[in-house]
């Protein structure tokens, strides 16, 4: 039975990660990693950053006009700070994940040749030795752990943006309506 079927991964280019056990695209197929993971992540990160910068320029322009008119800008400045903190806490870990994935795809072939060379010297396995000079490169465990941690941090950061006081109030109101209690609406 193939290992990706044993780990309940439904597609051929989706495989179970040896370290985490999570199904992921491009673990053994670097073309799939480049096409389905690296390229979309890089494109969306660049596009998102461009929209973020354009949004900040617009917010600064609005803030300048509001200050010129004598309007209070406290709420707008709080929103700008919140967006800035969120964007840093999202973009930096996303860049680190992207860098770790680039590291994986660039050294994968060297790691496989090194592993094959190591296994062919063991007489327990009847594997032919790959041609060429010895390459002692092995994957760095820390890079993989950093990749997993940063991927989790991106998700946690997103949840902090979503779960604000207004969101919690909306869910509380929804649950009370499900119970049949009447809730007053504030406009």
From TrEMBL:
Belongs to the G-protein coupled receptor Fz/Smo family. One of its GO terms (cellular component) is plasma membrane. This is Frizzled-7-like. It is found in: Membrane. The lineage of its organism: Eukaryota, Metazoa, Ecdysozoa, Arthropoda, Hexapoda. Keywords: Developmental protein, Membrane, Receptor, Transmembrane, Transmembrane helix. PANTHER family: FRIZZLED. Residues 1-170 form the G-protein coupled receptors family 2 profile domain. It is a multi-pass membrane protein. The chain crosses the membrane at residues 36-60, 81-104, 145-163. GO terms for molecular function: Wnt receptor activity; Wnt-protein binding. One of its GO terms (biological process) is non-canonical Wnt signaling pathway. PROSITE patterns: G_PROTEIN_RECEP_F2_4. It comes from Frankliniella occidentalis. The keyword Glycosyltransferase does not apply.
């Amino acid at each position: 039975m193939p290992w990706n079927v044993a780990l309940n991964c439904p597609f051929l280019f989706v495989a179970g990660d040896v370290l985490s056990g999570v199904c992921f695209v491009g673990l053994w197929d670097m073309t799939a990693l480049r096409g389905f993971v690296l390229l979309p992540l890089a494109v969306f990160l660049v596009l998102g950053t461009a929209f973020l910068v354009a949004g900040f320029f617009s917010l600064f322009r609005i803030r300048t006009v509001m200050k010129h008119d004598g309007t209070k800008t406290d709420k707008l400045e709080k929103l700008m700070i919140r967006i800035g903190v969120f964007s840093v806490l999202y973009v930096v870990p996303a860049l680190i994940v992207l860098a770790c994935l680039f590291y994986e795809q660039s050294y994968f072939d060297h790691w496989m040749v090194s592993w094959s060379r190591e296994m062919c010297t063991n007489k327990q396995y009847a594997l032919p030795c790959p041609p060429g000079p010895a390459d002692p490169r092995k994957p760095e465990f820390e890079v993989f752990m950093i990749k997993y941690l940063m991927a989790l941090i991106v998700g946690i950061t997103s949840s902090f943006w979503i779960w604000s006081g207004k969101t919690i109030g909306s869910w509380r109101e929804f649950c009370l309506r499900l119970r049949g209690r009447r809730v007053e609406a504030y406009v």
